[in-house]
Structures are given as structure tokens and as C-alpha cells.
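User: Predict the complex with 2'-deoxycytidine-5'-monophosphate.
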Amino acid sequence: MAKSIAIDGPAGAGKSTIAKLVAKELGYIYVDTGAMYRAMALFLIRNRIDRDDTGAIEAACEDADISIAYENGTQVVLLMGENVNDLLRTEEVGNMASASSVNARVRSKLVALQQKLAQNENVVMDGRDIGTVVLPDSRCKIYLTASVDVRAKRRYDELTAKGSAADLDKIKADIAERDERDMNRANSPLRQAEDAVLIDCSEMSIEEVKNEILRLAKEKL
Ligand code: DC
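Assistant: Here is the predicted structure with 2'-deoxycytidine-5'-monophosphate placed in the model:
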């Protein structure tokens, strides 16, 4: 059976950075499930569907063709056959993804895609419900978190480094709002699986977190 490392945690904890490094080190495929929810959100935005219009969102699940390909080891998200990777990391798409991912139909569509990817390949998969719903039998589950202040500051530094304007208080408020929604939704809320190892990386370097997860992977897989 294929091996997996499941990494869950709140927005901005550094899951994707770490998951990519761990996957590279182990020769596993990195699966970014947030990008799939973001692609669905982009579809909703493009079709001017309101985040509160449940009926229209559910109908959109039938119409949105989302698939995953790998190019030189990098995950490419295809929406209606178009590579949309570069369009997914905006605050607008992130906020729509957080809102639309509460929908059970959206979730079941994307969970099926994620489970299929993990069936035949060794994966490092990150998201919100990987250890609890997508890969409940994974033997290596991590819950990666950091304080709201640290996560907001990292996001702020990332944006300003790219030359984008950023407002730290606004980012902090958005992160807190996203946490609230991700943790309190009825369908697959973000929570630590009982058998997941908690890593609070507020005071840790990327290298330290990577090494800790590699150590756990060695021990558990
Ligand atoms: O990790 P991210 O910021 O790219 O995720 C965007 C949104 O998608 C996030 O607010 C919640 C949702 N999401 C989810 O519900 N389940 C996942 N497995 C991954 C992301």
C-alpha cells in the first residue's frame, strides 16, 4: 500500500512550505489540497456565483472540471483544462475558498480526487481534514500550527517581499476569521486527529520543522 504523510493545520502555519521540502527529501508526491479548493473558488468567482448561494455552488460542482497533473514534480491544477496555478494565491480566492469549502458537495468532489491521488503514489498531503477525513488510515499525521500573530507576520513579510502592499492588522483579522470558519464549520472542520502529532512552529525554523517531520516519518512509516 502507498505511504502517506498527512499534514493539517490553520492558514499560514507553513504547511505547504514544509510539505514540499519533506516530499522532496523522501521522493514522495506533494499534494496541495488547498489549491483544489482555491480552483473551485476561482470557478465560482469567474461565474459570479455568490458565496452564500448554496444551490448555485452545488450546481457548479457538476460543471467545474478540476484535475491535477505533475510537471517536473510540481503540482499543476487544471480548471477546465487550463493551468490556473498562478491565479490561486490571492486573498480574494483564499477568502472564497474558505467560504465555499463549507459546502458538503464541494468537499465530497475534492476529497474523492485527493483519495484517488493517494491510492497509488506515496504522498505528503496538506490541508484541513487530511488526517481526519481524507486519509484516516495514514500512519503519519501531523497537526502544524503557530500563533495568529506569527502567521500574520509571516504572510505580511511574504507579501511585502514580493513588493505588494500589505496591512498587518487586516491580514491578522482575515486569518482569525478564516480560522473561525475552518474550525467551526459543520462539514469536516479543522481539528487535530486523535493520532496526530502536534507541532507548534511559532518559535521554530523551517529546517527544524522539516527535520522533526522527517524524524516522525522514519519512526512511523
Ligand atoms: O490551505 P489554503 O489556504 O490554500 O486553503 C484555502 C481554503 O480551502 C481554506 O480556508 C480552507 C479550505 N480547505 C479545506 O477546507 N480543506 C482542505 N483540505 C484544504 C483547504
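The CA atoms of residues 95 and 137 lie 30 Å apart.
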